[in-house]
Specification:
This protein is of the alpha+beta class and about 100 residues long. About 15% of the residues lie in helices and about 30% in strands. The chain has a four-stranded antiparallel beta sheet, with no helix packed on it. The protein is globular and about 35 Å long. The two termini are about 35 Å apart.
Length: about 100
């Protein structure tokens, strides 16, 4: 799982790009992540999407905020199981640090 902290300056959002959805008024935002943190330790930034036509014409949306990793786990996690033997096997493996074979 990864957790990102996002801060958006809503005063920088262009209201003419808002659109009406079924459950409210929305703004399309794009998160761009950097390979290395910037000078303020931000891992990326957020810009408002200007739409495909404007983007193809070279227009860029305003940068409206920053992104910072809170938790990042790049390893794929195994799905949880309901096997009651899992905890027993894990405990047995932990106590078997000397390399001896478990007899079952």
């Amino acid at each position: 799982m990864a957790i990102l902290s996002v801060k958006v300056d809503v005063t920088k959002l262009q209201k003419e790009l808002f659109f009406q959805g079924q459950k409210g008024v929305y703004a399309d935002l794009t998160i761009l992540l950097r390979d290395e943190p910037d000078q303020y330790d931000n891992d990326g930034f957020i810009s408002q999407d200007v739409g495909k036509e404007a983007r193809l014409a070279g227009e860029k949306g305003p940068i409206v905020g920053n992104v910072k990793w809170i938790k990042r786990d790049d390893r794929p996690s195994a799905p949880p199981t309901n096997d009651p033997g899992d905890s027993y096997r894990a405990a047995a493996a932990a106590s078997n640090q000397g390399g001896e074979q478990i007899p079952f």
